[in-house]
Amino acid sequence: MIDFKENVNSNQKTTEETRQQMSFLGQAKELVKERSERRGYPLTFHVTTFGCQMNARDSEKLTGMLLAAGYVEKETEDADFVIYNTCTVRENANNKVYGRLGYLHGYKKQNPQMKIALCGCMMQEDVVVSKIKQSYPFVDLIFGTHNIYKFPELLVSVLESESQIVDIWKEHGDIVEDLPSVRKYPFKSGVNIMYGCNNFCTYCIVPYVRGRERSRQPRDILRECERLVKDGVVEIMLLGQNVNSYGKTLQQEISFADLLKEVATIPDLQRIRFMTSHPRDLSDELIEVMASYKNICPHLHLPLQSGSDTMLAAMNRHYTKAHYLSLVDRLRAAIPDITLTTDIIVGFPKETEKEFAETLSFAEQIRFYEIHVFKYSRRRGTPADRDPDQVPEPIKGVRSDTLLELTAKQSKEFRARRIGKETEVLFEEEKEYEGRRYWIGHTREYVLVAMRSVESLENRILPVVPTEFLTGEVLLARTADSVL
Ligand code: 5AD
Ligand code: SF4
């Protein structure tokens, strides 16, 4: 047991900030109520999320605050308040946002009271903000990643103003906790353990838009997890850009392995996942903790990025292929049923056929359960963008297809090996495949499984036996004999 007394969140300023924002929420509520009454029906909102799990969690916070202000959630974007929580990790994510702003403008013409807000990583880029100011004047509010906790204050301003409000901070402030938030699923939740990243991989824009790495106090994280479990959550995903370096910025240094151990001992917490791990910082201590607690899921997302040492060095990843392989060996020795998933970038500047072939054969050797393949996308301000030896798009396309083919084949083989073996699934939601409804959920190893059931299986963890493929990505299962 670690003594967390040293790390007690004694930051008066953040508590004061929370109080202030709660007071703004009160003001927003009055304004929303008044307008709803004037209109004769409740004002509605919609939050659209692009990008990663961190953004998904931020959107839950925004949703929580809008609900607390009295808005009613709407499934479609023809709402009175629409927020796009954007991502800028690759250029196509940006293009999607510009493309969809046109639709929003159409809705706004029909409903001039409509407010449009943009936030998230894309808004931390000066060029993006200039472009929106110039070409999309109908956007009412633009804010960034560092001041999302100020949303109640911004909401009041935007409700009271007719002009475009832009509030972007270049630096992060304090970590402000305890503002309203909701969960997309009642039974699983993400919990932020740290924000930002200090790694500066040469292709990546995240350190520029999310700021320097800072960890939340362990006490606050544990308190949030305990509260979630009391509220019915059975699965928690600990979130950070680089969870393996958790704690390095805290006064009392504590490792991610220490924190994970504490989270794993929370009574009734059935499943713990975490992302994202950096291969450089993944410790033996962490592997040991993963192996020792049954509620830590045997699944690890461990971005490889490239299987060529030359490329890894150029990417500033600080590990070699040999190091990655030795990690995989240690992980599989300690946790034999572990599934490994990864990210790989193809077409990084100067990547030749030889280097790509190395990546391909390394991926084949590791046998990942899933590979997320990304074509290198130039990000303004990053070192790799300045490299004159960019790889032509068609070559990136061919490399991406080749790797996707490999991962499709390996994933399928992996899933096929689970057929006939009893496994445990947390059922999440109902979904339709070819006109029939199924309950779907994930195994502890993160394999997607579907089962027919007339009664609701939502939030139930059940032993099942996969019997065949429902689609290439989903296994069809029946209830295990052990529960019949
Ligand atoms: N181009 C392509 N892929 C990228 N990623 C991050 N930056 C870029 C980029 N500029 C990928 C990495 C990372 C994942 C979240 O996105 O593989 O692990
Ligand atoms: Fe980007 Fe690298 Fe940080 Fe991940 S570790 S967010 S890829 S800089």
Short note summarizing the structure:
By secondary structure, this protein is α/β, with parallel strands linked by helices. The protein has helices at 12-39, 53-68, 91-110, 126-135, 151-160, 206-210, 218-230, 256-264, 284-292, 309-314, 321-334, 353-366, 393-418; strands at residues 44-49, 72-73, 81-86, 115-120, 141-143, 165-167, 188-192, 194-195, 214-215, 235-239, 271-275, 299-301, 339-346, 370-375, 423-433, 436-443, 448-451, 461-469, 475-479.
Describe the structure.
The structure is a single chain. With 484 residues, this protein is an alpha/beta fold. 37% of the residues lie in helices and 20% in strands. The chain is built from 13 helices and 19 strands. The chain has helices at 12-39, 53-68, 91-110, 126-135, 151-160, 206-210, 218-230, 256-264, 284-292, 309-314, 321-334, 353-366, 393-418, and strands at residues 44-49, 72-73, 81-86, 115-120, 141-143, 165-167, 188-192, 194-195, 214-215, 235-239, 271-275, 299-301, 339-346, 370-375, 423-433, 436-443, 448-451, 461-469, 475-479. The chain has a six-stranded parallel β-sheet with strand order 2-1-3-4-5-6, with helices on both faces. A five-stranded mixed barrel has the order 15-16-17-19-18. Strand 1 (44-49), helix 2 (53-68) and strand 2 (72-73) form a beta-alpha-beta unit. Helix 1 packs parallel to helix 5. The radius of gyration is 23 Å and the shape is globular. The two termini are 40 Å apart. The structure holds 5'-deoxyadenosine and iron/sulfur cluster (SF4).
